[in-house]
Design brief:
Length: 143
């Protein structure tokens, strides 16, 4: 999967090859791995809400001067599947450049095989999170 950052490609491969009964456990591990928001984003100040998610989900991407992207995600702990999307992106895209993030395939969650384990509505929410992240990165890159 050379069209995405190596860390993300590794996560995608792990999910795609995992037995279905293990996938939910893996998702829960990623849900627990979402980094806390920095103080300046408390109250979701300056973050974008993703209305496609059934759960309140907020994100903010910042393209750094060196072209790497710092992404912040927030979602309540009582929404583990949605938080897992944030954890997967946070870990898989850590230290990725704007160009690498923009190259992430839109069907990321299908490539992971998640449609076999979670509802289409949840997959659509995860896809919307990725789309908004990429849009924020593209807008900043254009500036």
């Amino acid at each position: 999967m050379s069209d995405m950052p190596p860390k993300l490609a590794e996560i995608v491969d792990e999910f795609a090859s995992a037995p279905r009964e293990v996938v939910l456990e893996m998702l829960l591990e990623f849900a627990d791995a979402v980094p806390p928001l920095p103080a300046e984003l408390a109250g979701h100040e300056g973050m974008e809400q993703v209305p496609e998610c059934q759960t309140p989900f907020f994100l903010k991407a910042v393209v750094q001067p060196d072209r790497t992207v710092v992404a912040h995600f927030d979602c309540p702990p009582e929404a583990p599947t949605t938080r897992a999307f944030a954890g997967i992106l946070a870990e898989g895209l850590a230290e990725a450049t704007a160009e690498e993030i923009l190259a992430v395939p839109d069907d990321l969650y299908a490539r992971m095989g998640l449609a076999k384990t979670i509802s289409p509505l949840r997959v659509r929410g995860g896809t919307a999170i990725l789309a908004r992240l990429k849009r924020q990165v593209a807008e900043q890159k254009a500036e």
